[in-house]
Amino acid sequence: MKLLAIDCATEACSVALFEDTVLLAGECRVLMRGHAEAVVPMIAALPDKGRSDRIAVSLGPGSFTGLRVGLAAARALGLAWDVPVLGYSTLALVAAMARQQHGQIAVSAAMTGGHGEWFIANYDAAGAELSAPASYPPAAAALAAQADLIAGSQAAALVAQRGSGQAATILPDARALMELGCTGWIDPPQLIYGRAPDARLPEAAR
């Protein structure tokens, strides 16, 4: 059973091909932008052009554009190959990567959001979600993060804001997907925005 993983949710763009739980090949690039141009060639460079029996894609929260790029690529390949598409939380993967590095302890994930805010979610030592991903200004994010270990792109900034804790600066990497275990799948995949959309309907339309 082969699985293709795609993660375009943040400034990192990564792909990975697994057979059962074994990583066959993968790549992670920190691009900041240009995920749409990069992700398909990255998949094509995998063994057998990434052909798999199922596809997993990061659902966010993260960059609105990156999330849509990743999900569109996953759905297009799923349709072409006639295989199922599953999703996973960006912050859950970051927390799982932190547990792999620091041991099975509680983790708060802190990732860059929009408009100067940070996405925060809390996970227990087994990886269970204690609070759903949400977007906060930095001061409120420091209060929302419950664990001593903070992981993510804003880990160091949050620890400095809070004045306590341990920071693990981590970007999500599809090659680490198996750290999520068998409980991390979201089916059917629905994007996790973490905050309300910027665009709003006019009052009359609402």
Describe what this molecule looks like in 3D.
With 206 residues, the protein is α/β, with parallel strands linked by helices. 27% of the residues lie in helices and 28% in strands. It has helices spanning 35-44, 64-81, 90-102, 138-144, 155-162; strands at 2-7, 12-19, 22-30, 54-58, 85-88, 107-112, 118-123, 129-136, 149-151, 166-168. It has a 5-stranded mixed beta sheet with strand order 3-2-1-4-5. A 5-stranded mixed beta sheet has the order 8-7-6-9-10, with helices on both faces. A hairpin with a 5-residue loop joins strand 6 (107-112) and strand 7. Helix 4 crosses helix 5. The termini are far apart. The model has no long low-confidence stretch (mean pLDDT 93).
Q: Which structural class should the secondary elements be placed in?
A: alpha/beta
**Roughly how much helix do the residues carry, as a percent range?**
25-40%
Radius of gyration: 17 Å
Number of helices: 5
Weakly predicted, low-confidence segments = none
H/E series: EEEHEHEHEEEHEHE
Q: What proportion of the residues form beta strands (DSSP E)? A: 25-35%
Neighbour order of strands in the largest sheet: 3-2-1-4-5
Question: Can you give me a brief rundown of this structure?
Answer:
The protein has five helices and ten strands, in the order E-E-E-H-E-H-E-H-E-E-E-H-E-H-E.
Q: What is the secondary structure topology, with strand pairs?
A:
Blueprint: E1 2-7, E2 12-19, E3 22-30, H1 35-44, E4 54-58, H2 64-81, E5 85-88, H3 90-102, E6 107-112, E7 118-123, E8 129-136, H4 138-144, E9 149-151, H5 155-162, E10 166-168
Parallel strand pairs: 1-4, 4-5, 6-9, 9-10
Antiparallel strand pairs: 1-2, 2-3, 6-7, 7-8
